[in-house]
Write a structure and sequence with these properties.
Layout lengths: L1 H11 L5 H17 L15 H9 L18 E2 L4 H11 L3 E5 L13 E6 H19 L27 H16 L14 H6 L2 H7 L2 H5 L5 H4 L14 H10 L4 E5 L7 E6 H9 L5 H7 L11 H5 L4 E2 L4 H11 L3 E5 L6 E6 L4 H5 L1 H5 L6 H9 L11 H8 L19 E2 L5 H11 L3 E5 L5 E6 H8 L10 H10 L2 E4 L2 E4 L4
Parallel strand pairs: 1-2, 6-7, 9-10
Antiparallel strand pairs: 2-3, 4-5, 7-8, 10-11, 12-13
Organism: Ceratodon purpureus (Fire moss)
Keywords: CBS domain, Repeat
InterPro entries: AMPK_gamma/SDS23_families, CBS_dom, CBS_dom_sf
Length: about 500
């Protein structure tokens, strides 16, 4: 009992490094291993299988011991916020996403009852870009006209355009707004107080067109739950362990897991993201059961197969920029590889985070239909640099401290220099490259530079995620969160009933 108490004190000490905690936890696990009955058929050396040892290790590290949790205030959205206001908030604060709060939910709902989901900035921008195309195709207004060949196939998919009876009203509203603008009467902005970014670039480009569309300005973020997937709210508490987070990130399509205040259960104090989980895994370097998994070659991990390559969504560098944007919207993917048309070799990639360029530079937004993807990458990259190599120890705390999903101090990798691997590289080498590049994906290339497979952070986390012989005792709070989102846990998997 005394040993367990000492272990808890050590791993909960925020002043100690993960390396120190690793040593203490592993001593405890090794003592437990000595009492295990190892069958004759076991591999030389006995002990726990790699994934089981990993499971025990992470189940002894509480989230409160992770640096950066609760360091900053987390930006939140309200269910009644309009989509335009939400975009402005996230853009000005340079935040990748935010939890959505519904203050009107009844109090009888258990922990974290006021949060109903997570919305990412890029999903909102993609939704609005599609609405722009719908409005331009439907209204046929001078200066906003799409040629018939450019009109999107899903041009009737917007909130307004889905109803044929609203078409004439939609056109009339847009024409009236443009007429008022021509007479010098400004359209009322729905921006949030304290708007900066030079007053959203003087309401030109993306934000200027945003002002002209009433359906975007009047649509609440709650509509995103119907028109586009938003992330389920699967929270954890500081006293929960890293095992909980590893299971959530690997078994669900989650980019980040919210950490909710343990006392009030009303406030999100930070996030554990996929890249943070990868960094935590890298702290296990040197442990035999970690190396047993990390030493696997990418060619043996199922990342590169003919089926995978054949189903890969890609676009060409000379395609219009909107081709990549439509691909991300249609297939609900957060990144698209860019290929050279003649050689089919990889020349770059466009990701969710790169959509900010359309908002940062109004002239790029205005040329989005005719600008090639290659030109967009050149403009967007600027002085961006890709950094690949082995992670530095000091990078760990700095990256984990970005627990508010902020991009303010993060260098975005260049679009023209994606993370790449060879088939012979190991899982650990891939993890290190992605960690150093702050990238969520990389590409396996053949000798000619053609893409053979894609490796995402979630793919890697799934390799390390322990199989579930039975539902682990995760506690009432965690079980309640799964139940509220329509999810259940069973042998070998965590399944959500609301996956798209």
């Amino acid at each position: 009992m005394e040993g367990a108490s000492k272990l808890e004190r050590v791993v909960s000490d925020t002043e100690r490094s993960i390396h120190e905690k690793k040593d203490v936890v592993m001593q405890k696990i090794e003592r437990e291993n000595e009492n295990l009955e190892v069958p004759d058929s076991a591999k030389p050396g006995g002990g726990l299988p790699p994934t089981e040892a990993l499971k025990r290790f992470f189940d002894r590290i509480p989230l409160v011991s992770v640096p950066g949790i609760g360091n900053s205030e987390v930006l939140e959205l309200n269910m009644t916020d309009t989509i335009s206001a939400a975009i402005e908030k996230l853009y000005v604060q340079k935040v990748l996403g935010a939890p959505v709060r519904d203050p009107h939910r009844s109090n009888h709902v258990s922990s974290g009852d006021e949060y109903v989901g997570l919305l990412d900035f890029a999903s909102l921008v993609l939704w609005v870009l599609q609405e722009f195309e719908v409005a331009e195709a439907d209204a046929k207004i001078s200066g906003m006209v799409l040629s018939p060949t450019d009109a999107p196939q899903n041009a009737t998919a917007s909130v307004e355009a889905r109803n044929p009876n609203k078409a004439e009203e939609h056109v009339a509203q847009a024409q009236e707004q443009l007429a008022r603008a021509a007479e010098g009467q400004s359209v009322q902005s729905r921006e949030s107080p304290g708007t900066s970014q030079r007053e959203l670039h003087s309401r030109e480009g993306f934000f200027g067109l945003l002002d002209k569309l009433d359906n975007v300005n009047s649509t609440p973020v709650s509509a995103m739950a119907r028109s586009f997937r938003w992330g389920p709210f699967l929270p954890v508490r500081p006293e929960d362990t890293l095992l909980h987070v590893l299971l959530l990130l690997s078994k669900h399509r989650l980019k980040a897991v919210p950490v909710v205040d343990s006392e009030t259960s009303k406030s999100v104090r930070g996030f554990i993201t996929q890249d943070v989980a990868i960094q935590l895994l890298l702290q296990c370097e040197g442990l035999h059961w970690f190396e047993a998994i990390a030493a696997s070659k990418l060619s043996n991990a199922g990342f590169e197969t003919d089926q995978n390559a054949g189903q890969m969504v890609s676009v060409y560098g000379d395609d219009p920029l909107m081709t990549a944007v439509r691909a991300m919207w249609k297939y609900r993917i957060s990144g698209v590889p860019i290929l050279d048309r003649s050689s089919k070799s990889l020349i770059g990639n466009i990701r969710y985070c790169d959509l900010r360029v359309l908002l940062d530079q109004p002239h790029v937004f205005l040329r989005r239909k005719e600008m090639s993807i290659l030109d967009f990458m050149r403009v967007g990259d600027g002085d961006g640099k890709q950094i690949q190599g082995s992670p530095r120890q000091e990078d760990f705390g700095a990256a984990v401290s970005a627990a508010t999903l902020s991009l303010a101090k993060v260098q975005i990798p260049a679009m023209q220099d994606p993370v790449t691997f060879s088939s012979s590289e190991t899982m650990k080498q891939a993890m290190q490259k992605l960690f150093r590049a702050r990238s969520d994906r990389g590409y396996i290339l053949d000798n000619e530079g053609r893409v053979k497979g894609i490796v995402t952070l979630r793919d890697i986390l799934m390799q390390f995620s322990p199989p579930l012989a039975a539902q682990p005792p995760m506690g009432g709070f965690f079980d309640s969160a799964l139940e509220q989102t329509g999810a259940f846990m069973g042998p070998g998997s965590v399944v959500t009933l609301h996956q798209s």
